[in-house]
Amino acid sequence: MKMSLNNPPRLSPEERARRRHQAEQCHQAEEAGCFGLIGGWAYSRKLRRDLSAEEASHQDEPFLCRVCYSDAVLRKCIEKRHHYAHHARLSPAVSDGETVLHQGCLDEILQALKLRFPAGNWAKNRPIPAKPDKNLGAVVPDISGRLGGPNDPPLVIEAQVSSLSIAAIIKRSAEYTKRRIPILWIVPLKEDLGEAPFRPRLYERYLHTMYHGRVYYWQPGFGTQLLAVHYGVAERHIPLSEWYDKEVEEERSAGGYDKPYKVIKRPVTVPKLDLVSQFYRLNRDEFRPWNERKTVPSLAIWKDKLADWWDKSEDEAFRRRFKEDNLPQERRKAPRPTADWTHYHF
Ligand SMILES: [Zn+2]
């Protein structure tokens, strides 16, 4: 039967609420990078078994997502369905409401570039008009100018704050590429990123892929320097535990090993880099990251000249480990608790 767009099926209020909840859960899962909590199940470390969000209470804490091994929090909602959410440290990135911090970042970089290249015509929020005959849209780069005089190469810098969607990042980057201007995306921070593992947001993961495994963070006082961060593998230690299994009437044991987190990463850094002398223009081909749904189009990017500074074998092992639960498949089916999961003792 063909569905008519003019006559959408009428939904009951319950069905509408259910679909809204599902869409919200999908959105949150995409942001977290893990679809393991969508079905409304998590593992209670206290009770040593899976619990649905309906039957669970805060007394059963702590909870764990069984797909990515990160901590989960139970959200008991009056208006909405009970559910679980991923709980992990985020990077202290400037958010879209923090205009003063965002503008302060742009002003500091702008001043530093003006000092270095007085003839570079550096400006903040200077519009580049559309050229419809050449299929070029209008853009307003955060910072734009030339690395020298009028005949030297141009550069645009965009400071990502969280309101910008992946689609907007792609669209803007592609627009500059059409104009043959390389783009440098940076993420302004409010404070030190620190060395502890954290959960990169969706846009951070996307930039990580776009720049071949690094994200450029900036902090007040950095001027034209950037902290390049690779998202290395972080592991959770599963302690050894032994228990008596009543069903099979025997002693069992599990744990005593490390499991890689799926969505929590360890920052692997190098000494700060200068965005002028230690970067170059790189034209990269379109490709689709192994763990993301959205293709990265062919782009002209402004990338550091360093050879990859992290342990690549670790990354390979991680990819092999998580290959089977590629995101597009996860989204279709809500995961059910598996038998062997109940025997993991955390
Ligand atoms: Zn998870």
Tell me about this structure.
There is one protein chain. With 346 residues, the protein is an alpha+beta fold. It has helices spanning 13-32, 99-116, 166-178, 202-210, 312-322, 327-332; strands at residues 41-44, 49-52, 63-64, 71-75, 83-86, 123-124, 143-146, 154-159, 183-188, 215-218, 225-238, 241-245, 250-254, 257-269, 273-274, 279-284, 299-304. The protein has 2 domains: 13-87 and 335-343, no CATH class; 99-238 and 259-310, no CATH class. The strands form 4 sheets. Strands 6, 7, 8, 9, 10, 11, 14 and 15 form an 8-stranded mixed beta sheet that branches. A 5-stranded antiparallel beta sheet has the order 2-1-3-4-5. Strands 12-13 form a two-stranded antiparallel ribbon. A hairpin with a 4-residue loop joins β12 (241-245) and β13. The protein is globular, with a radius of gyration of 24 Å. The structure holds zinc ion. Zinc ion (ZN) is lined by residues 34, 36-37, 65, 67-68, 70, 86.
In short:
The chain is of the alpha+beta class.
Layout: helices, strands, pairs:
Layout lengths: L12 H20 L8 E4 L4 E4 L10 E2 L6 E5 L7 E4 L12 H18 L6 E2 L18 E4 L7 E6 L6 H13 L4 E6 L13 H9 L4 E4 L6 E14 L2 E5 L4 E5 L2 E13 L3 E2 L4 E6 L14 E6 L7 H11 L4 H6 L14
Parallel strand pairs: 8-9, 9-10
Antiparallel strand pairs: 1-2, 1-3, 3-4, 4-5, 6-7, 7-8, 10-11, 11-14, 11-15, 12-13, 16-17
Zinc ion binds next to loops.
Q: Give start-end ranges of low-pLDDT stretches.
A: 324-346
Please compute the radius of gyration using only Cα atoms. Answer: 24 Å
User: Please, what is the average pLDDT?
Assistant: 86
Q: Tally of extended strands?
A: 17
The biggest beta sheet, please?
8 strands, mixed
Q: How much strand content do the residues show?
A: 25-35%
Distance between the termini: 49 Å
Kindly name the structural category: alpha+beta
| Number of spatially distinct domains | 2
* Residue share in helix: 10-25%
What sequence of helices (H) and strands (E) makes up the elements?
HEEEEEHEEEHEHEEEEEEEEHH
Bound molecules: zinc ion
Cα shape = globular
Number of helices: 6
